[in-house]
Design goal:
Radius of gyration: 17 Å
Bound molecules: glutathione
Largest sheet: 4 strands, mixed
Number of helices: 9
Shape: globular
Structural class: mainly alpha
Number of domains: 2
CATH topology of the largest domain: Glutathione S-transferase Yfyf (Class Pi), Chain A, domain 2
Distance between the termini: 39 Å
Strand order of the largest sheet: 2-1-3-4
């Protein structure tokens, strides 16, 4: 199979983390990105979004697009380790947290914090740190408190095991880190501890250094904004 999409997309990273958890092999084409689409990409994904997956690399007529669809497909391809809780309540909760992270959290981090820094640098403009700080405060006023409240006293977001909910949250927060924002310990201690716990998983840890190096290789110096 063949997976398409820039490595810095949190949705592409989400699919790659799930593939790594499940030891699934795939060809990888990192080219498609909101900063530039290879010719004909819309024939694979008419929505022109990443990630996109061809289950059979030689058959461009059958694609699975959207990280949630791809991850659920991976779960069926290799059910071990299970990344979707068995119990109905935990399962429903995992899907809900996945949805919150893929929609509102992704928007608030992507448009509000990541793009003003990364997209500006990538298009030759100075990073807009002020816009990113404003974006971060919007995030910190509603969504991060909600997610922290949902985590409660638990180690993981849904049930008592690592799941798609933890992956969906972590991959978005990784993009905050990449542009210099950490979760402040005084306001988001439990959420930050959860993030750090997830980063120690080999399937996720491999991308931390990789993404940082990639940004540095592009010649960007990202300043720490919030530690
Ligand atoms: N719900 C989709 C969202 C995918 C998405 O929005 N990806 C972004 C990149 S991070 C994209 O392709 N954006 C296209 C654009 O901005 O033109 C998923 O889970 O895969």
């Amino acid at each position: 199979m063949k997976l398409f999409g820039s490595p810095l997309s949190p949705f592409v990273r989400k699919a790659r983390i799930v593939a790594a958890e499940k030891n699934l092999e795939y060809e990888y084409d990192p080219r498609p990105s909101p900063l530039g689409w290879p010719e004909g990409f819309e024939e694979i994904n008419p929505l022109k979004r990443i990630p996109a997956l061809l289950p059979d690399s030689d058959n461009p007529d059958f694609a699975i697009n959207d990280s949630s669809a791809i991850c659920a497909y991976f779960e069926k391809l290799n059910p071990n380790p299970a990344l979707y809780p068995e119990a109905a309540t935990d399962y429903g909760r995992a899907l809900w947290i996945e949805e919150v992270c893929d929609s509102e959290l992704a928007n608030k981090i992507g448009l509000g914090v990541f793009r003003p820094v990364f997209f500006n640098l990538a298009t030759g403009k100075p990073a807009d740190a002020q816009a990113a700080h404003t974006g971060f405060e919007v995030l910190a006023s509603l969504l991060l408190p909600y997610l922290q409240e949902q985590l409660g006293e638990r180690d993981y977001m849904a049930g008592d095991a690592f799941s798609i909910a933890d992956i969906s949250l972590t991959t978005q927060l990784m993009n905050l880190n990449l542009v210099g924002f950490a979760l402040p310990k005084d306001r988001f201690g439990p959420l930050r501890a959860h993030f750090e716990r997830c980063l120690t998983r080999p399937s996720i840890a491999q991308f931390v250094e990789h993404d940082k190096k990639l940004i540095e290789k592009m010649g960007f110096v990202v300043e720490r904004q919030i530690d």
